Amino acid sequence: MGLVLAVGGCREARAWSLQGGPRPMGPGRAGPMRSSVAAPDCCGGLGNLDFRKADLCVMTRLLGYVDPSEPHFVAAVLTIAFNPLFWNVVARWEHKTRKLSRAFGSPHLACYTLGGAILLLNVLRSHCFTQAMLSQPRMQSLDNPLVYRVGLALLGVGGVFVLSSFLALGFTGTFLGDYFGILKEARVTTFPFSILDNPMYWGSTANYLGWAIMHASPAGLLLTTVVALIYTVAILYEEPFTTEIYRQKASQAHKRS
User: Fold this and answer.
1) b (16+ CB within 10 A) / e for 232-256
2) Is 136 in contact with 73 (CB distance < 8 Å)?
3) Of 15, 76, 103, 135, which residue is the least packed, with the fewest Cβ within 10 Å?
């Protein structure tokens, strides 16, 4: 489990063609926390059901189980947000200066080193995520064998996407090798890229969602939402830059020919 979550936290690297762009690619206690503010009764019976308020009702109930100021929860949010920021800042700095490649004497060695650092950071993120769940209450309605099996299935599907992405791309393809000048000659179209855009990011999100459901943890569900939002921002931030890397490579290859 730890290995899958660690690998799954790395940047969603995609394989490209030089002629083309990117593929469109302590155990918690049961029960909610007590609050001096009563949650709104948005349902009032089936006859008075207001669907406009349904999502607010669910969110209010979910937040009733979560203390956002709890230190483990704060640490989890910070690690979730920090990791993509770290690898994007370092990778762009390397692409601009090549200082890591010069310091390690090889772009491959520099990429392996950064990849190792990303793996360690993702182990820390997964640890903080788990501790945040254990420090917050469990939701009784999720604490049953059927829901547990659903979480286990999500964890399995996410693990398949993460590990198959890693095998398809290789280490440098997964860990920002294109920023180090280690570029793919042809686009990877094998599974899971044949059925899903950004399979490593969404596989990692499925891992965290399954892990949260298995723990019947509202805090874990909320943190999974943060993971999905951060990955969405990372994709929007990374794709234009990576597109430009391969555009420049294709332009240089065209000039040489």
Assistant:
1) eebbeebbeebeeebeebbeeeeee
2) yes
3) 103
3-state class of 138 per DSSP? strand
pLDDT at 51 over 50: no
Q: Please state at what angle helix 218-256 crosses helix 107-134, rounded to 10 degrees.
A: 170
Of the pLDDT bands very low, low, confident and very high (cuts 50, 70, 90), residue 254 is low
- Radius of gyration for the alpha carbons in the chain, expressed in angstroms and rounded: 21
- Separation between Cα atoms, residue 204 and residue 9, nearest integer Å: 6
Q: Is the backbone of residue 17 left (phi > 0), alpha (psi -120 to 50) or beta? A: beta
| 3-state helix/strand/coil string of 183-216 | CCCCCCCCCCCCCCCCHHHHHHHHHHHHHHHHCC
pLDDT range class, residue 21, cuts 50, 70, 90: very low
Q: Rounded distance, CA 118 to CA 111, Å? A: 10
> C-alpha 46: how far from its chain's center?
37
- Both tokens assigned to 54: 């349904």
Helix (H, G, I), strand (E, B) or coil at 84: helix
Per-residue pLDDT of 106-133, as tens digits, reads: 999 999 999 999 999 999 999 999 999 9
The mean per-residue pLDDT over the stretch 2-9 comes to 61
Integer angstrom CA distances of residue 210 from 96, 124, 170, 181: 38, 18, 25, 36
